[in-house]
Design a protein that fits this description.
The chain is an alpha+beta fold and 155 residues long. Helix content is 34%, strand content 17%.
């Protein structure tokens, strides 16, 4: 995952080397949660199960072999290009000890950061509402809201 320019200063100067050591040295170019391989197209069912072409078996969201008892509808199989990222497990980019870092694919990284993303979305909306309260005339905001409101007709 690319680092936002405003957060670049939080990371150490040798971050690319630290990230490579975790993703390729320790994890062996596979996600540490689900074992998906780096820079490969992976067929998956959308519920976490994916086809491991190297081993010739289906794997669960945790990377364990699973037997798919249901017939797999080929129309339901999707493919994803997997790219590993080095994730901070405690969401603190200044804490770069190896025990706090993990090589995660996009799916696992998004699942790991879901609560953080929800909080950030709430914080951005709260901040915008607070700025609007400070700098906008409430009468104008109310009139603008009334103009956008759909007209409802009672029968």
């Amino acid at each position: 995952m690319p680092i936002r320019p405003e957060n670049r200063w939080l990371y150490p100067i040798d971050w690319p080397q630290v990230s490579d050591a975790i993703r390729f040295g320790r994890a062996g170019a596979r996600c540490e949660r689900c074992a998906r391989p780096h820079r490969r197209f992976v067929a998956h069912l959308g519920d976490g199960r994916w086809w491991d072409a190297g081993a010739g078996c289906w794997r669960s969201a945790r990377g364990r072999r699973v037997a798919v008892r249901d017939r797999v509808d080929l129309a339901g199989v999707r493919t994803t290009y997997v790219v590993l990222a080095c994730a901070h497990l405690d969401h603190d980019p200044g804490h770069n000890m190896p025990g706090n870092l993990a090589a995660l694919c996009q799916r696992c990284h998004m699942l790991h950061d879901a609560a953080e993303h929800r909080w950030q979305r709430w914080w951005n909306a709260f901040r915008l509402r607070a700025l609007r309260d400070l700098y906008e005339d409430p009468r104008l905001t109310h009139e603008r809201h009334l103009r956008r409101a759909p007209i409802t007709r009672g029968f």
